[in-house]
Amino acid sequence: MDINISHFLFISAALFAIGFYAAIRRRNIILVLIGIELMVNAAVINLVVFANVNTKSNAADGKLMALFAIVLSAAAIALALAIVVKVYQYFNTINPDQIEEFKN
Amino acid sequence: MIKLVFYVFAFLAIAAALYAVSTKQIIRSVFAMFACFFAISGLLVFAKSDFIAIAHLMIYVGGILVVMVFGIMLSQKASLSNEVLQKKSISLHQYLALLACLALFVILIYFFYLYAPNTPIHYVGSDIQIIGIALLTKYLLPFELVSLLLLAAFIFTAMVTRKNKN
What we know:
The structure holds 2 protein chains of 2 kinds. Chain A has helices at 5-25, 29-51, 59-91. By secondary structure, chain A is mainly α. Chain A has a single domain (5-91), classed as Helix Hairpins (Orthogonal Bundle). Chain A starts with a helix and ends in a 13-residue tail after the last helix. Chain B is mainly alpha-helical. Chain B has 2 domains: 1-86, NADH-ubiquinone/plastoquinone oxidoreductase chain 6, subunit NuoJ (Four Helix Bundle (Hemerythrin (Met), subunit A)), CATH 1.20.120; 124-166. Chain B contains 7 helices and no strands. Chain B has helices at residues 2-22, 26-46, 50-74, 76-85, 92-115, 127-136, 140-161. In chain B, 27% of the residues are buried. At the A-B interface, α1, α2 and α3 of A face α1, α2, α3, α4 and α5 of B.
């Protein structure tokens, strides 16, 4: 019934690698953001898992770090999508390879 | 039986993430992320932290993905046509990116194998009690700072997306 910790670490490593691929390779800002979200999720899984390894008193630390990471990534995504909408109105594209100048 | 459910969640998370980053149509990848985040939330339940799992489900599936769907709708033409048009075969860049993330995966697994303890996860106690006590004692200042930062981020988001008059 108790799952071994290495299973979680394998899943989080796979999710981190997949998110890294999306973040560096996809040609669409929204998919890059999805990749970053996948990497944050892998980190959250690791934090929660390691919070429960020790039975001693520091169980709250990892869980609160995971909670703060979730909240901060929510704020970051809201901000990033607002900027994506603005960039689309200005450049008419959301391909990061085609957005080249930032001055008007 | 319960282990079988865990493996189903694990498979669903990884398969949905793979589909989300490899499909050409962006709306499909967002809907695959619904499945992926749901499965990750199930995995957090198996990691013995129920409150984080519920918070994750509410914030990601109920919040972030809905915001992403709005973002796709507001930049509709670019997101729906952009990647379908450039239908090249697999190029050198793609090979390099695949190689880089495979190397990252192998390195992560190697370090986990070296340093992580290989023990099952214990049930420490109810999540809500631990988190509630810690948030009001040891982590009071970070908690308030995070709430302020969230407020600032949402005000700034509303300011950025507002239509300016001139």
